[in-house]
Amino acid sequence: MPSRNRREKPDYRHLHGLTAEAALEIAICNPTYGEAHDYRLLARIQARLVAMWGDRDDVAIHDLVPVHETVRASDPTFFGHGRDWRGAFLHDAVGNLVGWGIRLGILVEQAVDGTRSFRMVRRDTLFERMGNGQWRRLDAAGVRERSARGAAQREAARIRHADEVAYTVRWHVGCLCEKGAAIPKAWFAFKEFAPLNGLAERVADARTTFEEAHRGMHMADQKAWVKQVEDLNYRTPMKPPSAPVPVAIPEDDADALSGLT
């Protein structure tokens, strides 16, 4: 039976035969992937838009892709970093972001100096991840107020959990360092470790980061991280012992020993 949590892969057949500019325009008018109830994805879309706009108020339509690509190339945590996106596919991805930004009220389209542009009119967080890892929309009736009231309690629980798992994380990371374990690609999916991609190959190369990064993680990510580090440790065999290095015997001692035989 297929998993309820499994997301269907986006279908890009609609891009066949489209120019890059047409793909951008169509995706802005009618976003090609994402669902209004998929708060996890929409939260990521909002984060990408905020990163794209940075301190800007407006981005002209002809600057959308260049701005997106500048951020994607420079920020290891930005979705798609290091991937070879180009042509209609790239323009569709950027148009999809902008299209959702308009639908969510984050962006508005307007003319600036006669140029079609998109202004960021809302930067406050629209979606929140709860302690169980599920997402909720803060604009729903009463949700933002309840969230504000419980913020201190959630943060205290997050910090307490980080303290509780600290020994477990350090122990497993230490074992992996002793085993000479390589860093799995899956670990770079954690935003805390994404900047290490391409810079570190072995767990030992970034031991302190792997031991301490959970303290800044969301509660659900802490739990996922503990499971990942435990699983890798249990699956990684010990390094075989090194062959003993023969001890060199001084020539005088060798002559003396030969005389005893």
Main sheet: which strands, in order across? 1-3-2
Element pattern in H and E: HHEHHEEEEHHHH
Taking all residues together, what is the mean pLDDT? Answer: 89
Q: How many beta strands in the DSSP annotation?
A: 5
What can you tell me about this protein's structure?
This protein is mostly helical. The chain is built from 8 helices and 5 strands. The protein has helices spanning 20-29, 39-53, 64-74, 87-103, 143-179, 207-212, 219-235, 251-258; strands at residues 58-60, 107-112, 115-120, 127-129, 135-137. The strands form 2 sheets. Strands 1-3-2 form a 3-stranded antiparallel β-sheet. Helix 1 packs parallel to helix 4 (87-103) and helix 5 (143-179) packs parallel to helix 7. The model is unreliable at 1-5 (pLDDT under 50).
Summarize the structure.
This protein is mainly alpha-helical and 261 residues long.
Which features does this protein show?
disordered N terminus; 3-stranded antiparallel sheet; two-stranded antiparallel ribbon
Helices and strands, with pairings:
Blueprint lengths: L19 H10 L9 H15 L4 E3 L3 H11 L12 H17 L3 E6 L2 E6 L6 E3 L5 E3 L5 H37 L27 H6 L6 H17 L15 H8 L3
Antiparallel strand pairs: 1-3, 2-3, 4-5
Helix pairs in contact: 1-4, 2-4, 5-7
